[in-house]
Amino acid sequence: MSDLILHEYAASGNCYKIRLTAALLGIPIERREYDIMKGETRSAAFLDGVNANGRIPVLQIGDDYLPESNAACFYLADGSALIPADRFDRADMLRWMFWEQYNHEPNVATLRFWRHFIGESALSEAQRSQIPAKEAAGNAALALMDTHLGRTPFFIGSRPTLADIALYAYTHVAEGGGFDLGAYPRLGAWLDRISALPGYKAIDA
Amino acid sequence: MSDLILHEYAASGNCYKIRLTAALLGIPIERREYDIMKGETRSAAFLDGVNANGRIPVLQIGDDYLPESNAACFYLADGSALIPADRFDRADMLRWMFWEQYNHEPNVATLRFWRHFIGESALSEAQRSQIPAKEAAGNAALALMDTHLGRTPFFIGSRPTLADIALYAYTHVAEGGGFDLGAYPRLGAWLDRISALPGYKAIDA
What we know:
Distance between the termini of chain A: 24 Å
CATH architecture of the largest domain in chain A: Up-down Bundle
Radius of gyration of chain A: 17 Å
Helix content of chain A: 40-55%
Number of domains of chain A: 2
Structural class of chain A: alpha+beta
Largest sheet of chain A: 4 strands, mixed
Mean pLDDT of chain A: 96
Oligomer: homodimer
Shape of chain A: globular
Number of helices of chain A: 7
Low-confidence stretches of chain A: none
Strand order of the largest sheet of chain A: 2-1-3-4
Order of helices and strands of chain A: EHEHEEHHHHH
């Protein structure tokens, strides 16, 4: 594999997913930090050279740039046991990863960002008006995960896959967004299974 | 492959993606229609039997159910030329598919749904207040696609992949959301390349 550089903001769960995937696979990556609070991913140099979409994370592979956290995890894990060999299971893993970006991240991660990083008093009126809907949708996402984890130890059967890593990243810090993880005991047990995996690294490691 | 049943609302771009993938691959699928305007995907039977997340599309494969449009496309195309054989290109295809669900669909598709299906006068105040932000984000997504398509005939090089299908579905009907596709000529030429592909089927076919 070419040299890998992760362009990131370390506290972002989307960036952590990629580091956790690399850690579980024993793949070394260099890290380059951008302060999103200071707009460092909206500079001309970043937009032209790293990601025209102005967002981190971006995984740099030699001279190629790969945005989108779950795509970067897929690149790292391609050919490993973190992606199921079975055709249905492989698609079902992607199902949970797309669901994470559409139903989980815009609610659970956004409320964490608003409350824990920006601060509720600094939110715009438009942001504040979206809080109740995001709380409801975030809790619905956590409840759906909790129900699923009552039937299976990991999202796709008995072994961890990228679906677990993608969903772990923002779930395990959801309390920063005001979510009560104590309400979801099966989800709590799954969080413990993830953090016990060989090679696991914490978000602040 | 087991018998395939698509649980869908035919006018949805997310459902169309799956039909278009199947059409381009020559895979027959049975279709089962639900009226989302009447809440038919929130019934107990649907939530228990088809998708606990209460959404279409769901691709049924024998006795297994696969929600999330882009995951269902991946299942159908797995092993075909619609998924690149190269490791970076495969991840880059997924990059555009995740980007579609996060940056494109919630703006371009949501405005089409609000304006073309619900009708602007029937929107809630909360929905109405989100229109300017969704217009700006939707146009930013279309502009980013237009720039990319100035460099390459399809999203991943010279051949169509699932990234093209995923992005085509809501882009080609974006005018229903109030977007002016005439402002994006390279994108327009790409739409024509997609509709000229052998096996292509229209959204209302």
